[in-house]
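Here is a typical protein record:
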Amino acid sequence: MSDENTMKILVVGSGGREHALVWSLIHTSQRPLKVFCAPGNAGITELAGTVDIDAIDIGGLADFAATQEIDLTIVGGEAALAAGIADEFARRNLLIAAPTRNAARLESSKSFAKSFMTRHGIPTAHHRTVASLEAARECLRSGEFGNAETPVVVKADGLAAGKGVHVTASHAEALLRVEELMNANAHPASSDISSAVVVLEEKLEGAEVSLLLWTDGRDYILMPPARDHKRIGENDTGANTGGMGVITSHDILDAATLEEIKRTIVEPTLHGAREEGFAFRGVLYIGLMLTAGGARVIEYNARPGDPETQAILVRLKSDLVEIFQAVAHGRLREVNVEWSEDASVCVVLAARGYPNKPEIGHVIEGLETFDVHDDVRVFHAATTRRDNQWLTAGGRVLGVTATAAHLDDALAKCYDAVARIKWDGMNYRRDIGRFKGDDAVAPRKKA
């Protein structure tokens, strides 16, 4: 440790997830910390030092960590992982709790992830990887994805900031989406993945669940299961986004289903990664669909989810620094993690125009009305500060997060807090916690 009394932590990223990580590190720590965030955002500056280094400037981040004698680095977003931040830090003997570039392919390449699942017998949707529009057309004509009116999911192979997945209503619409994604400028692709590669999948039916876990490559600790809303519009309509809201609650997964998921998905995934020479170390996010035939993997993410992290970490009672240290040192089996029994919710407040062309620069009102309460937190995702005013600076601007003993109370508390915030063009979903075809979620008060 660089100082016998103070531990130095670097968090890489700039969104609401990183704000939640910084807050939780400080809130749960049993020792004094000095936390930096690169590049951070205006909200994070109230808790930690922000560093003007881009999250994919791997060399610059490693130089900073070495110069400042950072004791531990934690990575929030996928771009830095795909760029090989863990590999560079390991090369310089800098401690980091994050997967290698090879391990991060579980997220950075949908085609790699699907072939990995096939090799290791991990249940997922029927799928095909295609590298041309004609190949996609022939695949759909073959009948393996049903008739021309059968819904098909079309996925960009590379990283697409949560916007590379299209659930189409027909084969004709699927081909249009394939053509869009095969345009090199349609989505950001990592340097080793062709923008011409697209994954076609059958559309699964059931309840979606996000299951996150810490792992040191062999042992793992599960976080509370979450359910999120990806679509921009209420009743799950409109474009896919990075996430418009999320809940955690004790009834999202029953004990028997969770045990099945551990046995058929979590453990085979970690074992398969070790077997293929890239033991996964960090936070693994498994997107699941609970179908009539059992749980199926929709996707892997190689890092904490956003906004899942916000809703999950407000329930953490254990020392987050200790957890990430154990991940980095391969000692996770020595750690006992405790959680609040409360339910939690995070409602994302987005800018007008998100996810395509969000408006920025609008004055945010109401943030000064919030005191520091453990059961309501406002995490900043894209804000800036000018002339003593908060301004919008991106698409997803704020994540309002609340906890309570019961989900309906957490929802009511969260929406009461949302009502105190406003700016021109503020957009949010009023149905977070309500899922199409799901009557299990308790009704809440009207926002």
Summary: The mean pLDDT is 92. The CA atoms of residues 39 and 54 lie 6 Å apart. The two ends are 48 Å apart (CA to CA).
